[in-house]
Amino acid sequence: MDLNTIKQEINNCQTSTELENVRIKYLGRSGLINQEFSKIKTATDPKAFGQQLNTLKLDVENLITEKSKTVVSENIENKKVGLPAVALAKVGHLHPITQTERQLNEVFRKLGFSIYSSPEIVTDEYNFERLNVPKNHPARDMQDTIYIKEPEYLLRTQTSTIESYLLKDHQPPIRAAFPGSVYRNEKVNHSNHFVFHQYQAVVVDKGITMKDLIGTMDLMFKTLYGPNVVVRYRCKYYPEVEPGVGPDMQCFNCHGQGCVICKYAGWIEMGGSGMIHPKVLEMAGIDHHLYSGFAFGMGLDRWTMAQNNITDIRTFMGGNLAYKPNE
Amino acid sequence: MKLIYSHLQKFLPDLSVEPQKLRDDLTMIGHFTNFYEEIDDEIVFDLDIKVNRGDCLGYYGLARDLSILYNIPLVLPEPLAYPTSNYALPIQVTSTGVTRVMAVKIVHLKNSVSPDWLQKFLKLHGVNSVSTLVDLTNYVMFMYGIPNHAFDTSRTTDKLIWENNNGKNTKFTTLDGTVLDMYPENLVISNPTEVLSTDLVGGKNSGVKPETSDTIIEVAIYNPTRIRLDSKLLKTVTEASIRLEKQLDPELIPIAINNLVKLIIDNCGGQVGSRIFDYYPNPQPALAIEFNPKLPSIISGIDIPESFALDIVKKVGSRPDITQEEDLVEEVVRFYGYDKIPTNQPISFKQLPDITPKVIYLIEQLKDKMVSEGYDEVLTWPLVSQPTDPQTVITTENSINSESIYLRQSLIPSLKAQLDQYTRYKLPHPKFFEIGKIYYLEFGQYIEKFALGKYDGNSFSEEIIDDLPQPDFYTPINTSNQAIELTSQIITLDANVISDQSPEVLLKHYQSIIDSKILWQIAISDYYQNKYTFRVSYYNCNDKTAKKIHLQTFNL
Q1: Which of residues 284 through 303 in chain A touch B, CB cutoff 8 A?
Q2: Interface confidence (ipTM) of the complex
């Protein structure tokens, strides 16, 4: 089984059905490549063997993805009437949230960040204590928590919870960004939901400053909102950072004059950030005299909804969100 | 929190900045100010005060910040010299939840309707005017940020006790007539026979009346945790509780009570009828924090003169929320100006080991694969109304959305609900997928797995993807496509066309003449020689409009 033979087989495919058959032959659950994987244990150098197989698998996947763009699509309708493919080929679409997440991931990957993730059902320790929010701290009121088993198990209320795991599991230098679903005990209506999407980025290294934080955040906002976006950075309290920084975007509707959208403030609060609190670093076993770090987080739903002219957050999840089939 | 400019000037007589600038400056130093407005000839600001700055739930705390920012003097009212009285109030404090209480008796006062300025002040803070005495206690709470209370001693006697309820009362009727269920641990103010007040709301049996002539006024700070628990237990949130649950400064109590006594005597007459009672068992000495004046420059990344840093640290002095060096750094930087930090110097690229969990690459890869196969991505609710397997389902305890209390164990029921939605909107040929978490209990452990669920146009299927082989790296394909919020049913209509032009040309032609705002999809559903059947779907328009456009387009 070598890549060239497979390549030829893929190239010979004329229709989506033929291509799918090739895919199943090699990449299916009991396909030839997976069969090879079962031989890893008996290989002389299992690691090298596994790596070779992974590379092969990726190559085949990429070839098939490439080819799928040019083969004739044969879905049920055109089989029935023998239509030219151009008439009915349905295009697939990514959810707008995935698109925004990918856009941000790309910004951070280019700066050397990994993408991270962690569980959604977490203990109080990871959601609060490790973020410098002890029991009975008034900051707990900033978030209505959904409990699985009060007071210990809950659904994470913020992507900072992922930061708790990240800092515990890795030693500096650290660069990681992470999208994540987070939960709050809110009644679902047109503008609130119990689940929404946040994005966070964390850096821990020697000599990290507020200037690094603000410059990096600004780069991110300019990537998302365009080069002309006006963002100001001000003092803002969050228990897990010190000093805290709040980014506010000048209202896109009134340009700072004050209107209904910005509640007459002229500015819209975009999220929270700051230099990681020394106690947070300490709890993660990181020497805060040696290392400093920044963290920032923001919500993705409102922006992404605005991008797509969607006004109701319920549309976004399990709702009446759809995509034009040919665009 | 409302802030009236003219009353702020009582602490800052030299304050003269334009309201617009004051709004922006307050925001920049950490007190987000939504807006200001002119009401009844007063300029009123609307602020969000963060939980660490309980002191700024009073004018005094904000004035302290502004006096440093603008370098103008902070002025306190001339203190009242208390007359000497030999009478010691028989007050007892037995609860450990009390940080400091000061109290004093005022006798022979004349309570009445409040003066206009006081009524106006309270109205702008959303508080009803009751009588001069009560209104002054509220005024002092807003000015100094410390709650206080006036008891009518003809109703309570002077024998006040700060104690734990311990079963003394099982019910308690508040000033406004609400009946609260009491718990033994509630901190209360009582006399030997009954509870007179809780730590966060006064009682109907002890409050000031229009005819009140003798009163004990008290200003107290409690253990914030005690207040938070009482507020939860009593299901009561008051102007007092939102302040007392935060760290307040007990050193401010003597100033606040002195000002309150002075205001009462000025406005209601009467005289001080007791010695000042002061219970303050554990005065906390000001915290010593080592401070390196270079640190603000090191942390901010910009050059902040050491002399400036030291000056700010001296001016800020001690405050309950400042407990370590980094807190002082924030003080220095916020008064120096966050806006002095450049915004155009992001961190540069650095090669580090990739710690991305491989399942993330797999998910990205699968998403691209599904899209390349014509599937649309949807997101559904992770909390659902029905368990798939009641034995292993994880249930939320306090979800206020009573129809969504179970963590989903499968994506399929949610995808079925999605299909129902699409059917309701008559979406032609739905084909969609979701990659999301599913959750279940296994041997008492909470398990989360990633699943891929899909509807291929005929049937639903689902597989757990955590255990599939994972790529070492994957670069997702960049796409950008618009999503659409369907607001009405999609209307699909057919049209027969006879033409010798190619189907591609015909499709392009018709596509170009139908407004893209209502054209969902155009396709050829059947053809024979030069006879074509076009199938056109319209959206976000009604039946009538769709038909009209359809007839026009195809000259029918």
Answers
A1: 292
A2: 0.92
Q: Which residues on A lie below 8 Å from B381 (Cβ)?
A: 195, 317-318
Beta strand B432-442 pairing with B42-48: unpaired
Pairing of strands B519-528, B531-538: antiparallel
State which amino acid sits at residue B336. Y
Distance, in Å, from the CA atom of B520 to the CA atom of B546, rounded to the nearest integer, reads 11
Helix (H, G, I), strand (E, B) or coil at B525: strand
Enumerate the residues of chain B whose CB falls inside 8 A of the CB of residue A319. 421, 485
Domain over B92-279 is classified CATH 3.40.50.620? no
Contact A61 B365 (CB under 8 A): yes
Picking from A81, A208, A327, the nearest residue to B481 by CB comes out as: A327
| Model pLDDT for residues B70-106, shown as the tens digit of each residue | 999 999 999 999 988 899 999 999 999 999 999 999 9
Burial class (CB in 10 A: 0-12, 13-18, 19+), B316: middle
Q: Work out the minimum CA distance from B533 to partner chain A, whole angstroms.
A: 11
Token pair of A309 as six digits: 């002219």
* pLDDT over 90 (residue B25): yes
DSSP structure class, residue A233 = E
pLDDT surpassing 90 at residue A73: no
Per-residue pLDDT, averaged over A2-18, amounts to 82
Inspect the interface and report whether the beta carbons of B343 and A218 lie closer than 8 Å.
Answer: yes
What is the C-alpha separation between A125 and A20, in angstroms, rounded?
48
Note the pLDDT of residue B12: 98
- Contacts A289 to B, Cβ<8 Å: none
Residues 6+ apart with CB under 8 A from B157: B191
CB of A41 within 8 Å of a chain B CB? The answer is: no
Of B357-366, B417-426, B478-487, B491-500, the one with minimum mean pLDDT is B478-487
> Would you kindly state where each structural domain of chain B is located, as residue ranges?
2-70, 92-279, 295-339, 358-464, 491-553
Q: Do B338 and A245 touch (CB under 8 A)?
A: yes
Residue B552 vs residues A245, B492, B547, B555: alpha-carbon distances, Å: 58, 15, 9, 5
Chain-chain contact of A91 with B374 (C-beta, under 8 angstroms): yes
Are the C-beta atoms of residues A32 and B449 closer than 8 Å to each other? no
Q: How is domain B2-70 classified at the CATH fold level?
A: Phenylalanyl-tRNA Synthetase; Chain B, domain 1 (3.30.56)
Q: Domain B358-464: what homologous superfamily?
A: Bira Bifunctional Protein; Domain 2 (3.30.930.10)
CA B510 to chain A, closest CA, distance in angstroms equals 13
> Is the pTM of the predicted complex or chain greater than 0.90?
no
d(CA A256, CA A249): 9
Neighbours of B478 (CB within 10 A): 10
The answer, yes or no, to whether residue A139 has pLDDT greater than 80, is no
Chain B residues lying within 8 Å of A147, measured CB to CB: 396-398
